[in-house]
Design goal:
alpha/beta; Nitrilase/N-carbamoyl-D-aminoacid amidohydrolase; eight-stranded mixed sheet
């Protein structure tokens, strides 16, 4: 294989992967996307005495860099350096995983090698959900988010099940080809067996999913919801020229235009109140007082909305690494991206906990907090924000149900959202501001990830975006009453509350945990085998 052929194959893999994140609804391409890169890896494996393993890393990096650029180029609208950092680092990490598969294959042979690819990949994606450098946007299983009818089984596996499925089918198809090539391009019973097995493992999950999709019936437990989309420019108005009262007027007028005595909840976007208010005096703040007359009018309703809040730590309280201090004082406080649930008598508070790296947090602030000054300023609170340790749902005093408040980036994390459901959440409200990326695939991808959360948890979702797409999502993951991009809008609808627990909610990302355990064993076994060969 000539060098230019290897580079072309690497780029083809990157382009095929990126198709799943396009608007072509091409998730099934993930079942073959890695095969061109497998040909490159196989070339270096067959010629391992001539080439070092690092060559595989280089080609894998080209493939995954192509994938990352083609799928997430739009980040540069928010931050050029953020886009470069996300693309370069994420490509490096996926290439490292692929490289480790190649090294394992060199040392332990084909079977162990391809098993290692699946467990290393899924273990890394599990890590990507759970460490402070998290960036799970391109988790392989997310690539099926435009194809919800064929992945209803995510209620059992979550997105890592989609990743494992895609990897396994790629491997089976490629190994079948290798058997065919070894058999001098003639069919045999062995080749036929592998071909039938592969086709079966494609058709069976899809068939099960289609049956599940068309036969799934929601328990009728209707909740009446009004969702607002104020559509206030986050760059030029929201955090600069427009005052809070003017922004609240837009939101309240929209809500008032369709609200009635049967409305159970009004939902407004992230940071509707964009400037910091002290939590110790929330009920006394002018911004909250501005909303109270509306709540008195709709006294049967509750209001969920986003705000930027501050909390001061009293003397003797534990001060976390995220806390800031007033200049020249020993007084510390935390800044939060917050969701509030209001009625005329009560305020419930939730602090966003999955924060955007480089904007809302500096990774591992205990050690790297000195980098806070480098955080990208997108309005509202920036730097390292405070977080909430537990997923405690909002409790509706009037409807006797519980709400999972999910703020923006948090909607990417399946197990994280499922913890709300474990704690009794019957509905999910996603509040966000997707206007940072202009009219690009970014906000559309973000929307479809909420569809995955609906399937995993079998919870209906009300999604309110300041700019982006607001909608309702049913328990099958169907998007209902979607608003248009960059249009001021309000929608009114019914969604069903649910109290049943799915297998995925019960066990979370078990595929990732099992993969991490096997990956460690494989890595240790590889070290032992290498040690024995060296000293035998």
């Amino acid at each position: 294989m000539k060098p230019y052929q290897r580079y072309i194959l690497s780029i083809i893999t990157g382009l095929l992967l990126s198709l799943a994140w396009s608007e072509l609804s091409a998730g099934l391409v993930l079942l073959i996307a890695l095969i061109p890169l497998f040909f490159v890896e196989e070339f270096f494996y067959q010629n391992k005495l001539q080439y070092s393993s690092i060559r595989v890393f280089n080609h894998a990096y080209i493939a995954f860099l192509t994938w990352n650029i083609a799928s997430t180029w739009w980040i540069y609208y928010a931050s050029f350096f953020g886009a470069v950092g996300a693309v370069v680092c994420n490509s490096f990490l996926y290439a490292f995983v692929f490289w480790q598969f190649h090294i394992t294959k060199r040392k332990l042979g084909y079977s162990a090698g391809y098993i290692s690819l699946m467990v290393f990949w899924c273990a890394f994606e599990y890590l990507h959900f759970n460490w402070d450098f998290d960036w799970p946007w391109l988790i392989l299983g997310n690539g099926f988010s435009h194809n919800i009818k064929i992945i209803q089984w995510y209620e059992f596996t979550g997105t890592l099940g989609g990743s494992l499925w895609a990897l396994f089918i790629n491997i089976l198809l490629f190994r079948t080809y290798l058997y065919y090539k070894e058999n001098q391009l003639k069919f045999s019973k062995k080749i036929l067996f592998w071909l039938i097995t592969t086709i079966g493992l494609i058709i069976i999950p899809i068939t099960f999913s289609l049956i599940r999709y068309f036969t799934y019936s929601e328990t009728v437990n209707p909740v009446n919801i009004v969702v607002t989309q104020p559509n206030i420019d986050p760059y030029n108005d929201k955090f600069s020229s427009m005052d809070v009262a003017e922004q609240l007027d837009i939101m309240l007028n929209l809500a008032n235009s369709v609200g009635d005595s049967k409305t159970d909840f009004f939902v407004a976007p992230e940071t509707v109140i964009p400037y910091n208010i002290w939590e110790e005096k929330l009920s006394e703040s002018d911004d909250i007082k501005y909303i109270i007359p509306f709540l008195r009018k709709f006294y049967n309703s509750e209001f969920v909305l986003g705000a930027s809040t501050l909390k001061e730590y009293k003397q003797g309280e534990t001060v976390p690494a995220s806390a800031r201090s007033f200049s020249d004082t020993a007084i510390f406080y935390d800044s939060y991206n917050t969701a509030l649930m209001l009625d005329t008598n009560n305020i419930q508070i939730y602090h966003k906990s999955r924060l955007v790296t480089g904007v809302e947090k500096i990774p591992y602030p205990e050690y790297l907090n000195f980098l806070s000054s480098l955080a990208v300023d997108l309005g509202g609170s920036t730097g390292t924000l405070g977080r909430q340790a537990n997923r405690i749902p909002f409790v509706s005093k009037k409807k006797n149900i519980k709400i999972a408040p999910v703020i923006c980036y948090e909607s990417l994390f399946g197990e994280f959202v499922s913890e709300y459901v474990k704690n009794g959440a019957n509905l999910i409200f996603v509040i966000t501001n997707d206007g940072w990326w202009e009219d690009t695939p970014g906000y559309k991808q973000h929307l479809t990830y909420s569809c995955l959360r609906a399937i995993e948890t079998r919870r209906s979702i009300a999604r309110s975006a300041n700019t982006g797409i607001s909608c309702f999502i049913n328990q099958r993951g169907d998007i209902i009453q979607a608003t248009k991009w960059w249009k001021q809008a309000v929608i009114k609808g019914q969604i069903n509350a649910n109290s049943q627990i799915t297998f995925y909610v019960e066990f979370g990302d078990y595929i990732g945990r099992i993969s991490a355990f096997i990956a460690v064993l494989l890595f240790l076994y590889r070290l032992v085998v290498g040690f024995r060969k060296k000293y035998s």
